[in-house]
Amino acid sequence: MHKLKDKQLLKNFSYINGSWHSSETNFEVINPANGDVIAKVSNAGIAETELAVNSAKSALKLWSTKSANERATLMRNWFNLMMQHQDDLARILTLEQGKPLAEAKGEIAYGAAFIEWFSEEGKRVYGDVIPAPSGDKRIIVIKQPVGVVASITPWNFPNAMIARKAAAALAAGCTFVVRPASQTPLSALAMAELAERAGIPAGVFNVVTGDDARGMGKVLTQHPDIAKFTFTGSTAVGKSLIAQCASTVKKVSMELGGNAPFIVFDDADIDAAVQGAIVSKYRNAGQTCVCTNRIFVQQGVLVQFTDRFTAAVAELNIGDGLADGINIGPMISKNAVADVNKLVTDSVAAGAKVILGGSTHHQGENFYQPTIMTNVSNDMPIAVNEIFGPVSPIISFTDEDDVLAMANDCEYGLASYFYSRDIGRIWRIAEGLEYGMVGINEGIISNAAAPFGGIKQSGNGREGSKYGLDDYLEIKYLCMGGLDK
Ligand code: SIN
Hey, which residues are catalytic here? Predict the structure, then answer.
């Protein structure tokens, strides 16, 4: 089925306490490229979610008391298995999510890299000894796993967003429960199958699949045995999940929406900026929180940049992600297409001009043409909202102050990008942008060693890097007294 080399990777039950768990009903997983039903997956609900939390709680002692080396060995096995099965995992991912196969393979390597990176970093959870105020005392700081971690992950990166959270949690000694998006449960279940083969003990990594987002979300945000909740998704949903976590004062980390500015200065390498804009905008059909949302171009290079960018975007191939040579796959649903189209038409009504694309694509109802708009101002719907689709609005600007004011005039603060070769300007703009991440002459900034995360209403906490581990650790202060003779 689906031309997998290892058919055992296609699972359709929840994975709880090291066992595959069926439910009374199923839900369908649909290929967004053609509407085919790929699989019917167990529709777990509140009871199964509670079971998964209980199993994570039971496994906590065993996992948290293993040495960092023991955990690292098992996590390294998991990483190796993910890379050995990269082709199959990518195929499953493209089938359920739609992104082109090459991009899906990239996501598997990206996700696996977090497991590899954190398996090593877990060995470096150092404590501290602090000089005490009196000679008969010692102040010692140790770090301990927070406990059971629950997460809700999105459909746009069905593998990497789970790996990025689970890897840090497991390396810190926590156990983990994930509810993957109901559009893309198969990648999560394939990860569970490989976690089991890697020797990760029962209850340490649990996946509950189901379409009762509200009911399952309540368990994962309110269950008293969960110490930490982590979410990647929209700011609107994130806000209500944070509120739900308040009742048990959970530690939270949130990776929410973005509205990334991409700034091209007069002194930029224009060809590099065009390439950077293409990868940061059209990756995953524009359905990425760090995707470029507004392109600001300085007046002196406006025509040059717009012409070259438009010519390059016009060359992109749109189609089923499994076909050869495809650059842009379908969007996740026809509702997503309709939302993007509304932003375009509302902005045209406000005076913007479409110079490329601007409507659905003949490939089918889930496809949208790569689109470029000019005559855009920073207050139009296409600039104010997170587009989450393959549309590039171009806004012109005069100078640094002008562009910084526009770029920062936004409730989000996740990723930002700019192109310049002037070292003074590079520092001024990098420090002036109110964003958690800044790509400088670079359109792809995500990797396991770097702290991914936002400020303002884009969330809190960091994923990846040494800072990412802190989010899964508690600091404990030991005061030793009575040391005088
Ligand atoms: C996201 O859309 O939040 C993830 C993007 C990335 O990891 O690069």
Answer: 255, 289
